[in-house]
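Ex. 9. Protein: VOC family protein.
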Amino acid sequence: MSPTRLSTVVLDAHDAHALADFYARLLGFVVRAEEPDWVLIGPPGGGTGLSFQTEPAYVPPVWPTRKPGDQQMMLHLDIEVDDLESETARAMAEGATLAEYQPQDDVRVLFDPAGHPFCLWTQPSQ
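Predicted structure tokens for VOC family protein:
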């Protein structure tokens, strides 16, 4: 039996290429493969990547969920950073939006341009 490997996580969006471009800039990833409605990006040296597919009926999740029936968050990306303040500012300059609700001091919840929540976080000071 051959071992299995997680190769990518796929995020839906109205425009797969635009969202892939945002995350490539944010993470320093490169495009590994692309089709008209799908893009795979990943670290330049290899490793697990992120994929994006165009979904015309995509509805952004609501975070935090406010009421029954809201489109719920299915997953989010946690991105470790060394400097939370400067990386939050950089993410926002790239097109992210800071969430109104921030549950922790060492985490910043943001939304990517398609509305997916993601977290920048840093190790707590010891």
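Check your answer against this statement. The helical segments are 16-27, 84-94.
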